[in-house]
Amino acid sequence: MNLQGKTVLITGASRGIGRAIALKLATAGGNIAFTYLGSSQAEIKETEDALQQLDIKVKGFYSDASDFSSTEQVINDVVQEFGSLDILVNNAGITRDNLLLRMTEQDWYDVLNVNLNAAFNTVKASIKTFLKQRSGSIINISSIVGIRGNAGQANYAASKAGIIGFTKSIALELGSRNIRANVIAPGFIVTDMTNHLTESLQETWKKTIPLNRVGLPEDVANCALFLASDLSSYITGQVIQVDGGLLT
Ligand code: NAD
């Protein structure tokens, strides 16, 4: 699982799952570029400080992953400053939960823009570099909700299902050039995204998890490290659930 000399770009890595992936891949020797938006200065500093403890190159970019041209700019800057781009992790994500009856048009578009369009933006901007290198690993973070659906999350489920279709398609298009694309579908992971759920809802979720515990950001990061590394060099177009067996 050695990522020495590899350049990793992770969207939305100032906290939660993105931060855990950044730290895990950095511990394996990867140089880390990451984006963030809507995070506190304290969160960003904590991520940067933790990464800078490791003997790697690190740079954070304030950038909206749903914006096509600023994403293109970030990717050009990363390739320029780091000299390559080897691993792309589309992690940035938001929720705007509501029953469809009450969901606004804005709630729908905000979630689709950040969770799905952002993945198009990063892949589109990285593809020339991957093709030139004849290598690349794309890891897109979906959710078990994208497989199963979830009441109150029609926008989120649609965006996460879209990620799966998008990833499988690019895996088919790019496989012959040694560019791999896979999906991680986490279950219930303890982060800011799930902390706002009521205690009783969290308890209900926990009771249905066969491994009898909630997931940690590091559980997802371990899977990301495997998909980033050469240990998964014959794996592409797959969806790996990291959910403690929740959706089985
Ligand atoms: P989080 O809210 O803790 O972190 C979200 C991150 O995304 C932050 O770093 C934030 O800065 C960044 N971000 C938000 N909008 C952005 C934008 N427009 N551009 C760039 N960055 C942006 O959430 P999390 O739980 O760590 O979620 C990470 C990913 O995992 C998301 O895609 C989420 O949908 C997915 N996921 C989470 C869970 C869970 O239970 N927590 C389950 C399944 C999937």
Looking at this protein, list some descriptive labels.
single chain; 9 helices; binds nicotinamide-adenine-dinucleotide; alpha/beta; 248 residues; seven-stranded parallel β-sheet
- If you average the pLDDT, what whole number results? 97
Taking all Cα atoms into account, the compactness measure Rg is 17 Å
Helix content: 40-55%
As for the number of domains, it is 1
This entry's quaternary arrangement is single chain
- SSE order, as H and E? EHEHEHEHEHHEHHHE
CATH architecture: 3-Layer(aba) Sandwich
CATH topology description? Rossmann fold
Overall shape: globular
**Count of helical stretches:** 9
Please report which band the strand proportion falls in: under 5%, 5-15%, 15-25%, 25-35%, 35-45% or over 45%: 5-15%
Going by helix content, strand content and strand pairing, the class is alpha/beta
The tally of beta strands, per DSSP, is 7
> What about the largest sheet?
7 strands, parallel
Task: Outline the low-pLDDT stretches.
Answer: none
CATH superfamily: NAD(P)-binding Rossmann-like Domain
At the first level of CATH, the class is Alpha Beta
**Which strand order does the major sheet show?**
3-2-1-4-5-6-7
